[in-house]
User: Which sequence fits this backbone?
């Protein structure tokens, strides 16, 4: 497996196909994790079907297979991300924003493993309420924020945290004006972390009291919950910095976080039968056995249907956002009429409607039988995976 696929790139799908069965034999996986492995392995392959593109002039043809569209697949996020960014242009205020990060303490990770949906939801709600409370308390105003849940480090270790993009100001409670923050300072991060801790533990206590953790072994003892709280650090990690002054820059910055998966194919440096090497931070690298690599990867599979992106304050209320935009003398940007084919051409520089040889029109026809398809696949291979069928 040391030869890169797709013209110089390694592919996580190849690792899944080669070592997925061993992973399932060694570890107990959830239904969602098994579904993700299956989808990644089948993405853009004959298993999902597709069509053939054939040139009307020179006869060039290639099979194009459907994408799995799983949000955890490293090959299925480019167009989804761009579509999301376009939708957020209608929501985002064209002003300075801050980037805030809230991190869940390591001592809570066993509880997260037991009830991930509840813990992720509590973390997102506590982070949103903390930001809104500081806006009301310090500015007497309603802020706007978009929050995104991530669970990984660059080494693929498990590290749940929330990224929040926060407006540098807010709509006054009486709606009379918009109060902007001056300078590169939002709120004291230590105070943000303290309030987050209090809100999150209060939500966990309510959930515990309502029986949400009834089968969690550590809470079999009536004092178990309090012992967990006593082990938690008094100071939690929070981080804040000024991001960009213009809304468009904020969108491009935020887009990198919203649809990012644990690791992209582009970070794979080498794949052997017993070792996967990938880039971490800066010039750093990490080498893992393929099964351990996949085990780390599936740790970051979210519960089915879980919404990892949340909007609060101005970004959750159309009337308040419109009022803020009016006070800031801004107009919502025009909606894009760009088709997915045009979006793909902008992202990749490739026009999927044109023959790559003679630039004439490609026509689409159904896939042939398997024998003919096998010959077609070997004689005229599909283009590199970075561009092939991004939107199929």
Assistant:
């Amino acid at each position: 497996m040391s030869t890169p696929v797709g013209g110089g790139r390694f592919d996580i799908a190849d690792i899944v196909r080669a070592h997925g069965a061993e992973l399932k034999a060694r570890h107990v996986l959830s239904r969602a994790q098994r579904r993700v492995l299956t989808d990644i392995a089948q993405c853009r392959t004959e298993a999902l079907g597709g069509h053939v593109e054939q040139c009307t002039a020179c006869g060039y043809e290639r099979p194009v297979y459907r994408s799995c569209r799983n949000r955890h697949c490293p090959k299925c996020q480019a167009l989804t991300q761009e579509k999301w960014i376009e939708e957020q242009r209608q929501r985002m205020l064209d002003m300075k924003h801050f980037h805030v990060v809230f991190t869940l303490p390591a001592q809570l990770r066993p509880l997260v493993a037991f009830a991930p949906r509840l813990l992720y939801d509590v973390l997102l709600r506590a982070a949103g309420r903390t930001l809104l409370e500081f806006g009301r308390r310090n500015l007497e105003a309603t802020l706007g924020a978009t929050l995104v849940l991530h669970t990984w480090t660059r080494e693929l270790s498990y590290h749940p945290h929330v990224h929040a993009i926060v407006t540098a100001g807010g709509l006054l409670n009486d709606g009379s004006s918009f109060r902007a923050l001056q300078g590169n300072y939002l709120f004291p991060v230590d105070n943000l972390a303290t309030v987050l801790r209090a809100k999150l533990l209060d939500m966990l206590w309510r959930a515990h009291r309502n029986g949400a953790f009834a089968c969690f072994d550590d809470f079999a003892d009536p004092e178990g919950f309090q012992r967990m709280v006593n082990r938690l650090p008094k100071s939690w990690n929070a981080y804040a910095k000024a991001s960009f002054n213009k809304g468009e820059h904020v969108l491009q910055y935020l887009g990198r976080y919203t649809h990012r998966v644990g690791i992209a194919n582009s970070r794979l440096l080498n794949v052997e039968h017993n070792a996967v090497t990938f880039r971490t931070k800066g010039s750093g690298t990490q080498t893992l056995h393929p099964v351990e690599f996949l085990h780390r990867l599936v740790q970051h599979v979210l519960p089915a249907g879980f919404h990892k992106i949340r909007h609060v304050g101005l970004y959750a209320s159309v009337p308040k956002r419109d009022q803020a935009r009016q006070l800031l003398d801004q107009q919502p940007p025009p909606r894009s009429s760009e088709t997915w084919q045009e979006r793909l051409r902008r992202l990749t520089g490739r026009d999927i409607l044109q023959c790559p040889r003679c630039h004439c029109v490609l026509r689409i026809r159904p896939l042939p039988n398997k024998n003919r398809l096998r010959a077609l696949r070997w004689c005229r291979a599909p283009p590199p995976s970075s561009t092939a069928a991004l939107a199929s």
